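Narrative of accomplishments. A recurring question from our advisory board has been how the design workflow behaves on a single, concrete structure rather than in aggregate. To address it, we present the structure tokens for one chain from the evaluation set, followed by the sequence designed for it. No filtering or post-editing was applied between the two.
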């Protein structure tokens, strides 16, 4: 700010100097032309009279006649240039301001050289006053700028100190800490808001990790305990029961390995580490294959599985992964809708609906079931990894599809919409 104001003041100073020089030169040029024309039209005596009666407020004129100097000045300085070139020279007066500064030059007429000058010390005084005022204003600006800068920097530093203190609390593990957001809504408030959103996400992820850890412990504790007990009892079993006991232990171990394999597969899909083998896929064909694969499973549970196809719709996708996702949804409907349930697979353009009339799930659990290792309490008696719907959502997201769960009144409706 100081630099800008100083530059503006210097520009005004240069403009004032240039304006003074321009006005002086224009005034002297006009007087030069007037006296040249006067010398051409008047005789010597009349010319001298005009010089004697010239108004000193307009210009100070002096002419060296053959006898004496005629005009407002009692001297004609040596080495005066010819107009439009000018030179400054001082004169002494009897007034209160004894020393005056004049600017002028010579004009050559047929009666000889004429000195035409004008007073410029008044403009110089004005310029001096302007310079003094500008220096004063500049100094005040510097003082005011420093004061405001100090106050502004103190306010910023105070907020930075507060942010650093809160950051250290977060570093110590107090993840519920949030940066304050003021009413000003300035850049610091925007930064604090974004940082708070990051903390919200971090805290949610930490809760999810803790929940996943609890679920892993809950889901794997039982099969691992069975494995341990089975291995301890294995030497004590009769020879004829060893094969059956080994098969049971292998099944428990396979369940544990399936859980970890599903978690690894889910991570690869979510992080984009698994390449998709994209190809044009018909939703009609996918639903037809899905129906043929699951029909026997539904019949064995005493359930009815139906298929309804609308106008075909083609999508670009990985056939294996998409079929796996859709089959998981149908398999869940068969597992949890109960005996005698009616299950429908409906294809409507770019949307696939999977409906059942079973017990359904609570409204507040429609998003929770997509989290890792989440299994609602009624399903705990069925074996599973708790990763099926998480895997389904990850696969559909990779295919730019949305999945929604809603109440089928009764039962559950799963909607998959491809874009």
């Amino acid at each position: 700010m100081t630099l800008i104001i100083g530059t503006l003041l210097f520009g005004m100073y240069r403009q004032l100097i240039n304006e003074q020089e321009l006005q002086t030169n224009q005034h002297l040029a006009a007087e030069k032309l007037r006296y040249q024309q006067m010398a051409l039209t008047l005789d010597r005596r009349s010319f001298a009279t005009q010089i004697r009666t010239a108004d000193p407020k307009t210009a100070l004129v002096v002419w060296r006649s053959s006898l004496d100097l005629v005009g407002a000045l009692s001297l004609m300085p040596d080495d005066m240039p010819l107009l439009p070139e000018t030179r400054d020279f001082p004169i002494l007066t009897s007034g209160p301001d004894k020393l005056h500064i004049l600017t002028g030059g010579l004009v050559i007429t047929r009666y000889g050289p004429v000195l035409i000058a004008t007073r410029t010390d008044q403009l110089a005084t004005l310029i001096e006053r302007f310079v003094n005022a500008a220096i004063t204003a500049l100094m005040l600006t510097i003082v005011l700028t420093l004061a405001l800068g100090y106050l502004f920097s103190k306010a910023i530093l105070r907020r930075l100190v507060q942010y650093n203190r809160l950051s250290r609390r977060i570093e110590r593990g107090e993840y519920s800490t949030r940066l304050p957001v003021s009413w000003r809504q300035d850049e610091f408030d925007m930064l604090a808001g974004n940082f708070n959103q990051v903390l919200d996400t971090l805290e949610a992820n930490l809760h999810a990790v803790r929940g996943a850890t609890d679920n892993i412990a809950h889901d794997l504790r039982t099969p691992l305990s069975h494995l341990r007990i089975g291995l301890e009892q294995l030497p004590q079993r009769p020879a004829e029961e060893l094969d059956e006991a080994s098969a049971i232990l292998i099944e428990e171990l396979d369940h544990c390995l399936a859980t970890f394999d599903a978690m690894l597969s889910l991570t690869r899909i979510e992080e984009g580490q698994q390449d998709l083998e994209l190809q044009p896929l018909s939703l009609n064909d996918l639903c037809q294959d899905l129906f043929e694969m699951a029909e026997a499973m539904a019949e064995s549970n005493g359930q009815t599985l139906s298929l309804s196809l609308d106008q075909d719709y083609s999508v670009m996708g990985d056939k294996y992964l998409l079929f796996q996702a859709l089959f998981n949804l149908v398999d869940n409907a068969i597992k949890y809708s109960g005996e005698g349930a009616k299950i429908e697979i409906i294809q409507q353009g770019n949307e696939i609906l999977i409906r059942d009339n079973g017990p359904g799930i609570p409204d507040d659990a429609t998003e929770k079931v997509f989290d890792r290792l989440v299994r609602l309490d009624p399903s705990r008696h069925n074996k599973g990894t708790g990763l099926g719907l998480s895997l389904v959502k990850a696969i559909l997201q990779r295919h730019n599809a949305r999945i929604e769960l809603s109440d089928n009144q009764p039962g559950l409706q799963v909607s998959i919409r491809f874009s």
